[in-house]
Design brief:
Layout: H1 23-27, E1 32-40, H2 45-55, E2 60-63, E3 66-69, E4 74-77, E5 83-90, H3 94-114, E6 123-128, H4 129-135, E7 143-145, E8 149-153, E9 165-169, H5 181-195, E10 210-214, H6 220-227, E11 232-237, H7 240-252, E12 259-263, E13 273-279, H8 282-287, H9 289-294, E14 296-308, H10 312-320, E15 325-332, E16 335-341
Parallel strand pairs: 8-9, 10-11, 10-13, 11-12, 13-14
Antiparallel strand pairs: 1-5, 1-6, 2-5, 3-4, 7-8, 14-16, 15-16
Helix pairs in contact: 2-3
Length: about 350
């Protein structure tokens, strides 16, 4: 008992997250992915995301718990309830998948052993691309961020106010819905730049800004920058699924002439930019610091988000060593976003 049969080499034992999953059959199914998920307290989300991202080259997504308000037309994030961190792995090699899941399960066990914040067990399921994309719809309400920015899922209606900047969004299989604090903080910081004229008149010559969005995901930040007046936005991501989502959402918002999406990271090789947006995680911001600063023109602004409060000092130090000066800081719970300026 517990041994895999020769006829079914892709089925895991009953003692791990892959119990009952036939990886061999899934590998033969077009559009099938392995979805890993963990329920975690919001303060543990970054650590859990980092563990799952080691198994999933495309990164992770986070679904915070929320409650519907305004007759179901808007939502409020509930930080007292756990978020769900998800990662999706292409099913190409059963042995590679099994090893990656085992490592993630082991590392999560080590994290759980500290007992610092509640973290659930690792679960796994086979999902199809179309089903996974549609599953987002139940967890994606209309959401207002800051004073003017409204995230409207393409399948929902919104009563537009005179000053609203409405972003029509379908995240598909890419990260970036506006539900996670890191995205909300970045959008609010970007709106603040817009209020100060640093997007529609933020270029070195006083013209609308050129903007770089590193790790664009669904393209949510790129679209916001374009709607705030940027003349040109380059959205880069290492995940081709994210690039496709960014381009598709740019088309939905009739911004294809302003937003260009492609695979890549920092440095982009197309700088300098007036504004650089990097909604990543602290460790990745530090790793990419040289490239991000290289993409930023003197006098330009970098917005870094996805920073857990305990990692803030390290991020400030890394960018300070490269000449950037902190200008503004915003926080939600234990997440921080930083606005940093490169001296002229």
């Amino acid at each position: 008992m517990g041994e895999r049969s020769a006829a079914d080499p892709g089925t895991a034992t009953s003692n791990d997250p892959l119990a009952g999953i036939d990886l061999a059959a899934a590998a033969a199914t077009p559009g099938a992915w392995l979805e890993l998920s963990v329920a975690a307290d919001h303060e543990a989300v970054e650590a859990v995301s980092e563990i799952l991202s080691r198994a999933a080259p495309g990164g992770t997504s986070v679904e915070p718990a929320f409650e519907l308000v305004e007759d179901g037309l808007a939502a409020r994030v509930d930080l007292a309830r756990p978020a769900v961190v998800r990662a999706h792995l292409p099913i190409l090699d059963a042995a590679v998948i099994r090893a990656a899941v085992a490592r993630a399960d082991r590392d999560l066990g080590h994290l759980q052993a500290f007992g610092l914040r509640p973290i659930g067990d690792l679960t796994a399921a086979i999902v199809l691309e179309a089903d996974w994309a549609n599953a987002w719809k139940a967890h994606f309400p209309v959401l207002r961020i800051g004073r003017r920015i409204v995230i409207r899922p393409t399948w929902r209606r919104h009563r537009r106010q005179p000053d609203d900047i409405v972003l029509a969004l379908d995240p598909g299989m890419a990260f970036g819905t506006g539900l996670h604090p890191t995205t909300r903080l970045c959008l609010a910081a970007l709106e603040s730049l817009g209020d100060r004229g640093l997007v529609d008149h933020g270029g070195a010559d006083g013209a609308p800004a050129r903007v770089l969005d590193v790790g664009s995901g669904s393209g949510i930040l790129s679209i916001a920058a374009a709607k705030l007046g940027a003349r040109e936005v380059l959205a880069v991501d290492v995940d081709p699924i994210a690039v496709e989502a960014s381009a598709a959402n740019a088309r939905r918002n009739r911004l294809s002439r302003v937003i260009r999406a492609r695979e890549g990271s920092a440095p982009s090789g197309e700088g300098p930019f007036d504004v650089v947006l990097a909604n990543l995680i602290a460790s990745l911001l530090i790793t990419l610091a040289d490239g991000l600063v290289a993409d930023l023109r003197p006098g330009g602004t970098l917005i870094g988000s996805g920073i857990f409060v305990t990692r803030e000092a390290g991020v400030v130090e890394a960018f300070g060593a490269r000449g950037l000066e902190p200008v503004n800081r915003s926080a939600e719970g234990d997440w921080v976003a930083l606005e940093m300026r490169r001296p002229s």
